[in-house]
Design brief:
homodimer, alpha+beta, Rossmann fold, eleven-stranded mixed sheet, 15 helices, globular
Amino acid sequence: MLGISPKRKETDKYIMAKELKHMTKRAENYSQWYNDLVVKAELAEQSAVRGCMVIKPYGYAIWEKMQAQLDKMFKETGVQNAYFPLLIPKSFLSREAEHVKGFAKECAVVTHYRLKASEDGNAVEVDPNAKLEEELIIRPTSETIIWNTYKNWIHSWRDLPLMCNQWCNVMRWEMRTRPFLRTSEFLWQEGHTAHATREEAEKEAQTMLHVYADFAEKWLAVPVVQGVKSETERFAGALDTYTIEAMMQDGKALQSGTSHFLGQNFAKSFDVTYLNKDNKPEYVWATSWGVSTRLIGALIMTHSDDNGLVLPPKIAPIQVAIIPIFKGEEQLKEITAKLQPVIDQLRALGITVKYDDADNKRPGFKFADYELKGVPVRLAMGGRDLENNTIEVMRRDTLEKDSVSFDGIVDYVKNLLDDIQNNIFQKAKDFRDAHIYECENYEEFKEKVKDGGFFLCHWDGTEETEAKIKEDTQATIRCVPFMFEQTPGTDMVSGKPAKYRVIIARSY
Amino acid sequence: MLGISPKRKETDKYIMAKELKHMTKRAENYSQWYNDLVVKAELAEQSAVRGCMVIKPYGYAIWEKMQAQLDKMFKETGVQNAYFPLLIPKSFLSREAEHVKGFAKECAVVTHYRLKASEDGNAVEVDPNAKLEEELIIRPTSETIIWNTYKNWIHSWRDLPLMCNQWCNVMRWEMRTRPFLRTSEFLWQEGHTAHATREEAEKEAQTMLHVYADFAEKWLAVPVVQGVKSETERFAGALDTYTIEAMMQDGKALQSGTSHFLGQNFAKSFDVTYLNKDNKPEYVWATSWGVSTRLIGALIMTHSDDNGLVLPPKIAPIQVAIIPIFKGEEQLKEITAKLQPVIDQLRALGITVKYDDADNKRPGFKFADYELKGVPVRLAMGGRDLENNTIEVMRRDTLEKDSVSFDGIVDYVKNLLDDIQNNIFQKAKDFRDAHIYECENYEEFKEKVKDGGFFLCHWDGTEETEAKIKEDTQATIRCVPFMFEQTPGTDMVSGKPAKYRVIIARSY
């Protein structure tokens, strides 16, 4: 159960600059590179509890930036935040048949509510007299407890739409876990909306998909393919699952957010009706939608390189690091005096600036550290810059270094941040687009899919074909994409007429 | 286990204005008034899970305002946010002897990680083959898992201080619960800091106490007594527990936030040492500190009245409600055109304005609703106001209504909000101060304490005396207060020389 890591050596923490970035290269082992980077950049680490991670301050700061922006976007659509219980009565899960099938196998179950001292007094054990009448499940998702609550909130058409979101932790007992991508406990938001009509609920599910896509592309600089899932890949209890699929640098897909049209399934399971304008009772229509700390994984794997994280300026906890290069306190004072107005002006523009004048680390170490942490812009100023009225500017995305005039540096940095945001999005998009292949031949597909990429293929719509592709290649149908035309064609596996044109890929 | 509330009738939701405020009066039954108000003002409700509440959107909006301000104040002291696992290995709890005694009796215990279909297929049951090797506890507080993590983060004096906070849910299996004041699950923040010296840790515990007091008084307008707890009332595992104690309108105390000096207890239990400047290992010194959704209870019980909530402007989700009183669309347009610049100007000042021009509710209903919800300032404008260039202003704290000139209304409202913030703090402080009694006679104390109030008494410092007072009167020693002088005196119960001068009160 417990895997407590051995104590790190004192020296580990004060390693040299070159060691700081010593990690597996992407080309050697992409998967190991990711794991190394998560630890090296101090984003997260494994905890003493199987499959649960500790999100370290720097990783959490990225999550806070994501939360702040998403929360704003949700509220702009009329969604309100609320909080529902962590624990769900076991019987609630059974009420929606598909839902329980999807989640029962990976539930953390609370059976007792008290511990007592063991006989020798040195430990505690479960008190058998404190057994719950009905077991409680740590929420894997909250549709059941929320719809049981909505029953009392919804009476007439005037109570609709009802749109709540909660930011919380959820638990799914995953067997194989990886930091951010798949963990037993993770942080997420889950929106749950109730509507009077089918059309309105379907529209809401799509609206939230677009919010997610917008956020991913404009804030995380992660280009996504929007689409709808096949039946097999749907959320347990949904009639339709919409998804945003991002492509990682190894060509694999990462499902980065989903929005579900739940029909009247949960309303029927929890008996939630409303009186329509004709005073007749009708079942309520539902959606749910969520994104999680998995987005941090998407962010890392889309942009970062062998030198460390590359963060889009809009989501970077530190946007500009400024490092004075000085000998002695006198020179530091002089450089600081010159830089202070720039720091103030950048901050007044809402830009997060870290002025790092610590004298217990060498500039080279600081440079490497900010590179590793993905800080978009690094400025450095030394004695020669003072003389020449210049400043050194390094942009993290391209690692280009320039000596530029000190005059106008504020505007320069402001524009550079915009430029970096656009550039890393464009780079990721170019990569993604270059790895989308139209494919009509299964033999060719099987060979090519090993190297990653999104495959735009015709599918006959049967589960058999879907299962065969997965068995042969580990690839799955990611979605019926909205960005590509639904042309007629022939299923490459069965040879039957196609029902859909889909994106197939290996995925995380 | 389950207590699903019966479905409310359709009419409930569209009750008349007078019914809206129909609830128990404080003078009749203070406790019932509180319960009624929590429900009527749509702050929270009981969930289907014993002792766990649903925090409704309006209640959650108050919590979000509190979070935003506290988070800012924490970060200004150098604290960073992070996230640690929900589940704690059972064995961790036993490591600190006092800690386990304090929390073992009210723990939710996870014993299994899977459900399976029951034989008839209609339900799910715990899968006996999915029993955990070691049970996991839902965190009642996170000292143990965090210090087990800190062990790997702290090596030398250069790693200190380490100051993390997390916003999360915790679970304590309380037998008798009340919304916000005492629930099995609640939301809180818990700060955990590590320091090189005893002095630094003690100072940090006090600094955070002052942050809490400052927040309570300046933002919640809740006056508090700062002090230190007696040994009996200390946090399980602490050497000193600092507290802020607020007085409710029934004279009872509400412990509203605590900050603990933990000494080296957790460092010793989890073997957390650092190398000091002489390269010698030493145990780390610790603090922890937390406030919870209980603060919402403090807020309600300090200021609200028989008409509903009274919220301090700085924490109110809606600060100003503006209601046009119109007949027909034409007049509405005219009023809106007149009000729009005011709305814009107020919002530009950072003031949250709700312009309520809904035509499906009468103005009287809206007035009552905003009163119930504690919106600090209500403006109303009708046809006569248009003619006279006036506007009606109602302040929630005093319920005073005024017709004022429309010119300069923005400044008027801005000043009024400040005035309300100050006024409700002063009112609460006057009430509190009028109910602090010096008392040296136990018979008098026993009689008087029934009516509530804080009693400033001399105490001999023994557990026996403390226990006797509690048994005789249900009152407890709240703290050794910092705001009163530690005069010499005689214990009113034992007649022995006093060790401390303390505040004694009944409490929530």
